Amino acid sequence: MSMLSRCAVALLLLPATSFSCAAWDDAAGREWVERFSWQPLPVGEGTVRTTKGARLPALRLTGTGDGPQQVRVSVPFAPGALPAGKGLTVNTGMRTVPADVRVLTVHPDTGHSVRRGLVTFVYEPVRGASGEWATLALSDTPPLSGPSLEEGAFSGELGGFLLEVDGEAVRLHRDGALWMTLRPVAPKRAVDAPPVTEVVESGAHFLWVRVFFPDPDWPRVIEARMDSAGRLALRLHVQRVARKDGTAPDLGWALAVEGEGLPEIPSHDFSTGAPFPAPDGLPAAFPDAHLLRRGRVEAKGGAALRYLRCAAEEAVPMQGMAWRTAAIAAGNDPESWNDLLETAPGAAVADPAAFDAIYHCGVSPVLDPPFEQVRRFHQESLANASLPGDDFGNVTGVPAGGVFGMNRLNHCPAIFEDAYRSGDLRLRRTALRWCANFFDLSIWWGSLPQGHFGGTRYNNSVANGDPTHADDKTFMWRSNDAVHFCTKGYDSFFYAWEETGDPRMAAALRHQTAYAAEMVHTDRGECRNIGDVLDFLRLHQFTGHAPWLDQAMRLFRELRTKLGEDDLFSQGGQPIVADGPFIDDDAHGYDAPFAKPYIIGYALQGLPALAALAPDEPRLAGTVRAVARFMAASQDPVGGWRYPHPRSSRMLVDQAMEHAAQLARAATFLEAQGEDITPLLDAVERTLRARVLGYEKTGAILGGVNGWEVSTGALTDGQTIYDLYQKPADRDPARDYTEGAVSAGGSSPDGAVYFSEVLDWYAARRDPARLLDAGQELARVLERAPAAADAARPEDYRRRPDTGVRGHGMAERLPAFWPERLAAMAAFPLRMRPEDAADVDGWRRRGREKVFECLGTPPPAPASFAPVVVAEEDRGAYTARRVVFNVSAWERVPALLLVPKGPGPFPAVLGLHDHGAHFSIGKEKVVRPLADDRKTMKDAEEWVGKCYGGRFFGDALAARGHVVLAVDALFWGERGRAEGVSYEAQQELGANLLQLGMTWTGVVAWDDLRSVDFLATLPEVDPARIAAAGLSMGCHRTWMLCALSDRVAAGAAICWMGTTEALSQPGNNQTRGQSAFSMLVPGLRNWLDYPDVASLACPKPMLFYNGDQDTLFPVKGVEDAWAVLQNAWSLAGAPERLETRMWSVPHEFNVEMQEAAFAWLDAQLKR
Length: 1167
Prior knowledge:
Layout: H1 3-13, H2 26-36, E1 59-61, E2 69-76, E3 87-91, E4 96-106, E5 114-123, E6 132-139, E7 148-151, E8 154-158, E9 161-165, E10 170-174, E11 177-185, E12 196-202, E13 206-213, E14 220-227, E15 231-239, E16 246-247, E17 251-257, E18 268-269, E19 284-285, H3 289-292, E20 296-299, E21 304-310, E22 317-318, E23 323-331, E24 348-350, H4 352-359, H5 369-383, H6 412-422, H7 425-442, H8 492-500, H9 503-519, H10 532-543, H11 546-560, H12 586-591, H13 597-600, H14 603-613, H15 620-634, E25 641-643, E26 650-652, H16 656-672, H17 678-698, E27 701-705, H18 708-711, H19 734-739, E28 742-745, H20 755-763, H21 776-784, E29 810-811, E30 814-815, H22 818-824, H23 840-855, E31 868-874, E32 878-886, E33 892-900, E34 906-912, H24 934-947, H25 953-959, E35 963-967, H26 985-995, H27 1000-1017, E36 1021-1031, H28 1033-1044, E37 1050-1054, H29 1060-1063, H30 1090-1095, E38 1102-1107, H31 1115-1131, E39 1138-1143, H32 1151-1165
Parallel strand pairs: 34-35, 34-36, 36-37, 37-38, 38-39
Antiparallel strand pairs: 1-6, 1-24, 2-5, 3-4, 3-6, 4-5, 7-12, 8-9, 9-10, 10-11, 11-17, 12-13, 13-14, 14-15, 15-23, 16-22, 17-21, 18-20, 19-23, 20-21, 25-26, 26-27, 27-28, 29-30, 31-32, 32-33, 33-35
Helix pairs in contact: 1-2, 4-6, 6-7, 8-9, 10-11, 10-14, 14-15, 14-16, 15-16, 15-17, 16-17, 16-20, 17-20, 27-28
């Protein structure tokens, strides 16, 4: 036994509250450091195949506002997408920036490519924009080094700031001088053991260190995170080394600023949960204090303050070997840190499909409103499930948990995966808070002779037989040891490590798996431990580490010794009693062992996946099959399971969702074997039906039904239910449906976290509309369920009517003062001028910001494009596909996609259709409809014959080797008017979008920007070679798109160009209203003329064609506009990249023009 272990054992066996370890020495301190510092995660090799042509994921950027912003996100990578030793650059659509990459995990493929990596970079979002997409590219810059240990205190620099951490204080310097000093408030250490520094991360943008201070009584860690902008966050972690329970001492921070005073600081008590009312200019914040609901802030003179996370007199529970923490943010912009010590955690989000590629968690489809409403209820409930106060972060129930709960972390991975499927980062926050709470308060970090270190405490010490805290209803005191059947869900720490790179999570994973390998068994009185197969199996699948697969198999092989002839088992492993007695509580069940649904269902957590890996393992598949059939057969028709026996009086409907998830996993395995899964699917349907219709009736989760005997008063004179029934068959459950007490409200976590997983699984196999038919038994229960209370519904924030009014007086459709106004517009302030040539990027950035501002509120970016191919057609050299994808968070749209045959990736063109006052088709003006679309085909062929020389120009480009995407603009084709085509309805759409704070042009522009982003994510497309092309309004869309995004490499803009002066003359088409709404941007002409906006595309290659017979765009106006373009490209130093040509044609894009334009495009994209 080591020195530290002897010290710890001696400590834990002493009754005294204080302890001085005579055996303490540096070796003991080092062992403590090693226990909690980072160590590499195990990884195998060859269990995952590298994905051929694996693509790097795209990132959705959500930053808004002025100035550079740091993005820090853990990115999922498919096998082979990010090879070992490679770095990344980030293309934000405006520019390419380098990124720091910190590798967190690697795939168990032959090259150990990166699985998850923290990517940190700085970019400057476009003012007024939201939902930009960024693409990643490989670079030869190597990733950052992994965490390392160094003897002694810490001193390091980043971004002109010097950070020092030692045993006395944390010091932050700026500009070569001490700026502030932060001293931890904590008990004095018993020994002056030397500190050890763990450099977690050190890159160009972010510094993360943990300094360990060993001690026999109050060991601690000072954690510091700082970015290159001088934002600093500190967290003090203090452990209480004691055998018995106690309370926390004073814990917190004292801050002093050098050479300057602090603003007046109000005294503030956090017990109410109110955040600190920080005065302007205070270089400090308290990221989690209002959530902990303890402690206070008070001024200490004019240049100092003291923050107590808790005061000793508050008696905050602090059990033996548990941790308590105190966080403070300081330096620049301290309010930017959240309680997880992250800044802007949602600044970049990977597409859900990228998570599905490595977790196989699926991507949630968008279902009909009744089902999405229930999904949103669950996600909202989980997003707010973290307990506040002394047990902050624990999840005991939803939508609002109480002090006490089962506290089983095995339900946490489902929350992570729901975050991945949905893109809802609030769920990620809940899961990470739960893991942090578990590390601090629920893992037993003490050493006992029986080897308890690293296991999970029993959740409720009173229920575990310790009456010490029986009268305390304010905190859930855990046991002061580890319990094997509570130790589950440790794979959660793998998810948490991959999300955050926090070494605490890796340490918890290491110690919990070591404990489980030694102490968790299925043949020693608790067969429920078979649920741990899922933990070990997930870890093996993620890492390829063979010993974890061995542990999963060990647990089943132990269970196999307890199986009956029917492949079922009892909770304790004793033989199941045939024809047993009526059982209505756990105690009676122990006397007559039986197959208990709540316990036996654990077999379906991981055994189905294990059976798929080991099809020849004796009795493994049979156990999955037998348990699944038993679970389906023992379900109550209402959709829940009775507890503890299938014929007990109490029915649990809320917790049934976990059993439904178990059945879905079993059914997936059996389905792959070609077996009939109808009974399992029916059982899942019943559970979902109860959830959906229960929510519709109650506005909450249908909880369950208690036996009619209690609610009707059938038990009198001291009778118990056992006086009524001897055998399970003696009791008729039908009376429960009409007379039993029905409950509704919240649920324990297991009743909520699996809803989306189960719903998505079911929807892939049956029409969800079936869930709206209650059936006889459920209908009877719902009749008596409490009705939902009316809820106030907030007004949609988008409905903000414009208040601007135009002047009166018109002539020839124009205001009477149009000549004066045009004269005043002669000098467009943001037009490119000679002085802008020295900083073309700066001029372009200012111009783009103004365009985005004037375009109005954009539709929110989709969390995922989620493309689906719904039809396909072979066209010789290329394939035509009908696809649907999310163009925004509000709209899922159809599109036509042409993909050349052969090895890609290919250059791509976004084909942008015209206006033409022809609204019945849109994308079909560019791409030939699929053959089965006869009605649209005739319409399209007639239109193309009129305007495009009889040729679909998208198909012509595909034949030349380009991927082509065509999407309907809002108001055209399949995004047209529900009531039918109407020319006059244009003004209705344009005006009402203005009422919503948006513009028609803005919606079209943002849809085009997202369509390009979608193109860039397709595996067949080279994202560096994307162009746009279009006629008329398609031309306007082309140069607008090229002006707003650097992702588009070139543009061919045909027949839409002129100056405001030319297009505002009496009689011009643009003065007619109606169609003009689709290309008007309110306020923009105050800053930029049409050609000025198009000039923002410089210096990229651009082609502009017009016709001298085009009556819509007078030749002089076109030539004047071209002069503006030529001036811009010349000032940018790239006049050769601009091509303008006047054709002797009307308003059209004929075949000869197409051939010339396509040859030009080939030259730009194929070189």
